[in-house]
Specification:
It contains 16 helices and 19 strands. With 564 residues, the protein is α/β, with parallel strands linked by helices. It folds into three domains: 99 residues; 116 residues, 2-Layer Sandwich (Chitobiase, domain 2), CATH 3.30.379; 338 residues, Glycosidases (TIM Barrel, Alpha-Beta Barrel), CATH 3.20.20.80. The protein has an eight-stranded parallel barrel, surrounded by six helices. It is elongated and about 80 Å long.
């Protein structure tokens, strides 16, 4: 980008930021949601002004890079005749790609003035290609004057290619008297990592099913394929367990039919939903209905009257294992995902198990010398049950220290447990430990992937901010999930996850605002190869994408600082 372009973009984004800042301040004063999707006249004006500014920025950069996010493995832009989409667009697809053809048919008219028909002699052809073997998500996209051909290793691969085509049309297509002109291109693509996730936290603030579906729609556009739902924490237990209705009594929660509906919808977007039930800590929502599962030393004089975040399930109470087994059995049957996340983080071991007479007797009986060793005994009750059901457990990785230096796992994790690195500054140690132990690893380091953190100084969240560090768009982009600087094997790293803890996420509009545009950076970290990831390229490709987010009514933070 030349100096003139940089100055222009800086001015455009600065003005957009001023508009957004004044809007956020007004929302804070008025007690609004702080997002750009409220139904008020001032907000509509805010959206219009920001949209116009971003559109101007988009036009100033469109000639430099195609706005493809995440960027494909190989893009070959041809100097040849374009593909012309006329009044009627014909799509050809086999029966096993009917869902992908319907998805395409819904997208194209957003950019082209055309009606859709289905015919063997087609303008756009979708097909499965068994010769594409690099991954189940490998695809090719060919645009020529004769038409558009999408080939994929699977329906999921074809779906991903459709989203790439959508971005190509958005960025490069022009309207002529003959129809919509789409420049020729040959794209070959496959993901770097197979696990590309975002996490929502309805345990803290409940999110209705239609809102989550809307979130899923946006995830799919940028090739995320996993949505983790944090369904239980101190603040709430949000999923129906038919044998224990008391767990959700008096709370907004999802029925099992709600979840089945959501799973079906997510599958239509090729997204798998991973449930998380956090144990043995983060369990006040369980314990307030089952105080018999508490450790004996816990003061219960004011039990149930205020939120407690410092309690745990008692490792020595048989009722705990019966209750958790019931919960996990129903979760396993309900969710088709091979993964179940069981938490395992931030447990106040020393003040619960360390002071519980029953747990201390258990510790002596097992020959343990440290209280944290009881975690191995606690989780051992569930491994075989989950394996028998074909499920793979996930845990947040914990170590012998919550900050460097750390030397070992908190307790020995079985090799078939997938771990998630999350604590800031401890990811290098997590990479080293998992490489040595053989555990698969998902990368969600707080310093790059915690999207509940503010995006800029003075930005949201305005409540429940415990002194969070700032996580800018550039911080979210400029890291390599493989951590090559460690000179460690990285084959065990299976993907990335952006987490959106819900203490300050009061609704889906706030969730969108905190997610985007940082999720665009994470999408590229999870999909694109390192040689296709450059910050200067990304920050110019992002403008048409932001403009289209605004057109779709998706709240996001204007990243004015990237024009500097």
């Amino acid at each position: 980008m030349n100096l003139q372009s940089i100055i222009l973009l800086s001015i455009i984004l600065l003005v957009a930021a001023i508009v957004a800042y004044r809007y956020i301040r007004r929302q804070k004063r008025n007690g609004g949601c702080g997002s750009c999707n409220c139904s008020c006249n001032c907000n509509n004006m805010c959206k219009t002004v920001i949209l116009a500014l971003i559109a101007l920025a988009s036009q100033s950069t469109a000639a430099q890079q195609p706005a493809l996010i995440p960027y494909p493995s190989k893009v070959d832009i041809r100097n040849a005749k374009p593909c012309i989409i006329r009044n009627t667009l014909q799509i050809s697809a086999p029966d096993d790609l009917a869902g992908e053809a319907a998805y395409l048919a819904a997208l194209v008219p957003q950019h082209c003035k055309t009606t859709i028909s289905h015919s063997p002699k087609a303008d756009i052809t979708l097909r499965i290609d068994s010769s594409l073997t690099a991954s189940q998500e490998q695809y090719t996209l060919s645009v020529t004057h004769k038409g558009i051909t999408i080939s994929g290793a699977s329906p999921h691969a074809v779906f991903n290619a459709v989203n790439t085509l959508d971005q190509w049309i958005l960025t490069k297509a022009t309207t002529t008297k003959h129809g919509t002109s789409i420049p020729p291109v040959e794209i070959q693509d496959t993901p770097r990592y197979r696990y590309r996730a975002l996490m929502l936290d309805p345990a803290r603030h409940f999110l209705p099913i239609p809102a989550i579906k809307r979130y899923i729609d946006e995830m799919a556009r940028f090739k995320f394929n996993i949505l983790q739902l944090h369904l239980a924490d101190d603040q709430g237990f949000r999923i129906q367990i038919t044998t224990h209705p008391e767990l959700t009594q008096g709370q907004q929660h999802y029925t099992q039919d709600d979840i089945r509906d959501l799973i079906t919808y997510a599958a239509s977007r090729h997204i798998s939903i991973v449930p998380e039930i956090d144990i043995p800590g983060h369990t006040y929502a369980i314990l307030r209905n089952h105080p018999e599962c508490l450790c004996r030393n816990v003061d219960t004089t004011s039990w149930g009257r205020r939120l407690r975040t410092d309690v745990m399930l008692c490792a020595s109470a048989p009722q705990v294992y019966d209750l958790c087994s019931d919960i996990l059995n129903q979760i396993s049957a309900l969710f088709p995902s091979p993964y179940i996340h069981m938490g395992g983080d931030e447990s106040f071991i020393s003040t619960n198990w360390g002071q519980c007479p029953r747990c201390q007797a258990l510790k002596a009986q097992l020959g343990y010398t440290r209280d944290d060793q009881i975690m191995e005994y606690f989780f051992s009750h569930f491994w075989d049950m989950l394996r028998a059901k074909g499920k793979k457990p996930i845990l947040w990785v914990e170590m012998d220290n919550i900050r460097p230096p750390a030397t070992r796992y908190l307790f020995p994790y079985p090799q078939d447990v997938t771990l998630v690195t999350w604590r800031s500054a401890l990811t290098p140690k997590a990479v080293q430990l998992t490489a040595a132990s053989g555990n698969q690893l998902i990368m969600a380091p707080g310093e790059h992937c915690y999207f509940d953190y503010p995006q800029y100084k003075g930005d949201l969240p305005e409540t429940n901010n415990w002194g969070m560090p700032i996580l800018t768009l550039q911080d979210s982009y400029q890291w390599d999930p493989g951590y090559p600087q460690l000179n460690q094997p990285d084959e065990h790293i299976i993907g990335v996850m952006g987490t959106l803890w819900g203490e300050a996420i009061c609704d889906i509009n706030r969730a969108f605002y905190m997610t985007y545009p940082r999720a665009l950076a994470l999408a590229e970290a999870g999909w694109s190869t390192p040689d296709n990831r450059q910050w200067d390229s990304f920050r110019t490709r992002i403008y048409p994408i932001l403009s289209h987010l605004m057109h779709r009514g998706i709240p996001f933070r204007v990243p004015f600082e990237i024009g500097k």
